[in-house]
Design brief:
By secondary structure, the protein is an all-alpha fold. It contains 17 helices and no strands. The structure holds fe (ii) ion (2 copies).
């Protein structure tokens, strides 16, 4: 369902002062997003999170409380109940690294040095931007590339904080005892990721953006859901898939050696996290739930994928420096067509969609919806557990 036409391209809206127009357009955009959810169960579970994230913009406050509602599952017989997770736990213990020792923080980083670009100028289609009447000189282009890299890394950082909290919840809530051992290593991994992204932003790029409202909504949704498998599905499969795609793209595009090494180390850890999600969810979604429950997961995953496909358009950058120069619709087009963002989306879905197939959430019932939004090509690619660490970094 879409908003009534009179609200779209309305000349009255276009004539509003920039600050008011930006708010009205964002509100309309958000209402449309919520109205497209078809499954009532999904709407019921995501509605309160969308209210907090999209409309109340709770992520823009300095702190947020998310009330979780799951049970901590204890088992006093300490079973060895999942050999694959045990093996993953052993691997995780072996591959721990220390961000303050294994990364060379003395590396000088100058975002305005064209010889060591954070991301290549090919990330952005400058001609398209000039088509909207915005022409940047070399210094302004470097400034824009610094801002967009900082925006992406800020979202990685906020996503990592979500992963830190969610992995702690998953460790409590999973009934699989070997999953608790493994989950504890993931908590440590995510703390390290928060540490290194935060340190890189603070000490090297000296800027940070608020959490994107859509990312906040997704994190709020899985943190407050009482069902343990939804936390796995949301964090280990969807958000981690997003992270693998984003990290892989940036790894490939950056020439800055400290950031490249930081991303290489993080990618190795993230691949284990996705693998953990696959191990936990595959048996559950293949006979462990009622059909109604499984369908709700299928629809929920599709809605989150759509949110990721359509909504990570850096509106924080738009509001910061472009709202007075172009409409939100033009900005969305510019971001959608941006070569770097297209690559990011391609790698993200290459990582994410096959994993949904591997856990059994791409049945014929939902396949056509993925095909309809242009994601059909990714369905039969290998799942993360079938890809080597080296290939994951190769994007
Ligand atoms: Fe992480
Ligand atoms: Fe992770």
């Amino acid at each position: 369902m879409q908003l009534p036409k009179f609200l779209e391209n309305n000349p009255l809206v276009e004539r509003l002062p920039t600050e008011v127009r930006t708010k009205v357009e964002a509100w309309m955009d958000n209402v449309n997003t919520v109205l497209t959810i078809e499954n009532m169960g999904v709407l019921k579970s995501m509605g309160p999170s969308a209210m907090r994230g999209l409309f109340l913009q709770k992520g823009r406050h300095k702190t947020a409380e998310m009330r979780s509602n799951h049970s901590a599952h204890f088992n006093f017989s300490y079973p060895s109940d999942n050999g694959a997770m045990k093996a993953l736990y052993e691997k995780a213990k072996r591959l721990q690294w220390n961000g303050s020792v294994d990364l060379d923080w003395s590396t000088p980083v100058d975002p305005f040095n064209p010889n060591v670009p954070l991301i290549g100028e090919g990330f952005v289609d400058w001609n398209l931007l000039s088509g909207f009447g915005i022409r940047f000189n070399e210094r302004e282009q470097l400034d824009f590339l610094w801002r967009i890299t900082t925006w992406m890394l800020s979202q990685f950082l906020h996503g990592e904080q979500g992963a830190l909290m969610a992995s702690a919840q998953v460790t409590e809530a999973t009934p699989i005892f070997d999953g608790k051992y493994y989950g504890a290593t993931q908590v440590m991994d995510e703390a390290r990721h928060v540490e290194v992204f935060s340190r890189y932003l603070d000490s090297k790029l000296e800027h940070r953006y608020d959490i994107n409202d859509n990312l906040f909504t997704i994190i709020d949704g899985l943190m407050t859901d009482s069902r343990w498998d939804m936390k796995f599905l949301g964090m280990q499969i969807l958000v981690e898939g997003l992270a693998l795609g984003a990290f892989g793209t940036l790894y490939k595009m950056t020439s800055e050696p400290l950031l490249k090494e930081l991303l290489r180390l993080v990618i190795q850890d993230e691949a284990r996290h996705v693998h953990f999600g696959l191990l936990a969810l595959k048996p559950l979604y293949n006979g462990g739930l009622s059909e109604k429950e499984r369908i709700e997961r299928e629809d929920w995953a599709f809605e989150i994928v759509l949110l990721m496909r359509n909504r990570f358009l850096a509106h924080e950058l738009y509001e910061e420096g472009f709202a007075h120069r172009m409409s939100r619709k033009e900005w969305n087009f510019f971001m959608d067509e941006m070569p770097g963002m297209s690559m990011f989306r391609r790698v993200m879905f290459k990582r994410l969609v096959p994993n949904l197939r591997a856990i059994g959430l791409l049945t014929p019932r939902i396949l056509h919806r993925y095909e309809k939004v242009g994601l059909g090509d990714f369905i039969h690619l290998p799942a993360t557990s079938e890809i080597s660490d080296h290939d994951l970094s190769a994007a």
